[in-house]
Amino acid sequence: MPLPPEPFPAALERRKARWETFGDYRYLRLTDDFRGLPKGTLAWQERLIPGYPRIGRIFRLEQGLAQQFAGPFWMEEKIDGFNIRIFRAGDELLALSRGGYVCPFATDRVPDFIPQTLFTAHPDLVICAELAGPDNPYTQGGPSFVSEDVQLFVFDMMRLGQAGFLPQAEKQALCAAFNLPVPRVFGRFSPTDWRQVLTLVEELDATGREGAVFKEDAPLGHRTKYVTAWSGVYDIAVRADDTVELPGDFFTGRILRMALYLDEVGRERDAGLERELGRAFLAGLGRSVERFKRDGRVAHDFRCRFRRRKNALAFMEHLRAILGHTHIAQRRLEEEGGYWVLEFEKEVPKLTGLLHQLFRGVSILD
Amino acid sequence: MPLPPEPFPAALERRKARWETFGDYRYLRLTDDFRGLPKGTLAWQERLIPGYPRIGRIFRLEQGLAQQFAGPFWMEEKIDGFNIRIFRAGDELLALSRGGYVCPFATDRVPDFIPQTLFTAHPDLVICAELAGPDNPYTQGGPSFVSEDVQLFVFDMMRLGQAGFLPQAEKQALCAAFNLPVPRVFGRFSPTDWRQVLTLVEELDATGREGAVFKEDAPLGHRTKYVTAWSGVYDIAVRADDTVELPGDFFTGRILRMALYLDEVGRERDAGLERELGRAFLAGLGRSVERFKRDGRVAHDFRCRFRRRKNALAFMEHLRAILGHTHIAQRRLEEEGGYWVLEFEKEVPKLTGLLHQLFRGVSILD
Question: A1-49 domain in CATH 3.30.420.270?
Answer without folding.
Answer: no
